[in-house]
Give the backbone structure.
Amino acid sequence: MVNYRYLGNSGFKVSEITYGNWVTHASQVGDDAAIATVHKALDLGITTFDTADAYANTAAEVVLAKALKGQQRENLEIFTKVYWPIGKKGPNDTGLSRKHIMDGIHGSLRRLELDYVDLYQAHRYDDETPLEETMQAFADIVRQGKALYIGVSEWTAEQLREGHALAQQLGFQLVSNQPQYSALWRVIEERVIPTSEELGISQIVWSPLAQGVLTGKYLPGQPVPEGSRATDEKSGANFIKRFLRDEVLEAVQKLKPIADEAGITVPQLALAWVLHNPNIAAALVGASRPEQLEDTVKASDITLEQAAYDAVNEALAAVAVVDPEETYTVSPKSRPA
């Protein structure tokens, strides 16, 4: 079964393997397959589910609601997000203005068929809205009981510090950040993680398997497997391109003997590597088929030896991206239309 970790400096626990439905629900897979996969996640002990209003332009939230229908609400931790353009994509259907945040939480609760979400997250930083306006809206949502906790996604160390200070002034906790993080993408390590540790903020990381590259299934010099994320031109292929260079794929093949020596699979090794960092509260995993989850959830029971952790770092040293300046390139400087 899956273990739990506290989210930030709070008393709130989440399953350290968390199910995310980006690029799967209402996109890569049909509703029946999505529902079956969520039910498998529940059977395996995952109780934390992450979605966003922008996933499949609001449809992913609807599918998640169908999949969780009949479950006891108090036994689930449900996250969603606000920022990207949704709906008809009008002038106020994007960003972190008070209007968009308030419209966003009401729309998400309606689609998810919930009275509240456990964690409501700013999906990116909005340079066009005063941070005070954004944080005041989040404070009001918490006071109204529509979200229990507030988090953000892909914020820089400086943005986290400013947001945390305002949250304290307004009487609520900023408990989490959701950045991309894996053994191939380590840009948060130098600045974001130390700042987060100081402030009592956890990371809920997306793409811990580097879009599937860290499973070892993509081989250097060979075509990508049929039906893999690399063939999904709607969204997945775009994100995975940077990892499909032969030098990266050759380095990833060096993980197999490390995993073999530890008695685990390569995907389990990659997830255990992520969870080795105590500032990581949860690794987000997705699946298009229920059986895919059976292997990955076992990473929750693995305590990676330091020698194995160091061996992964050595194997990927030449290809892992570690430049902290990359954290400043993620949030758009102007609101996307």
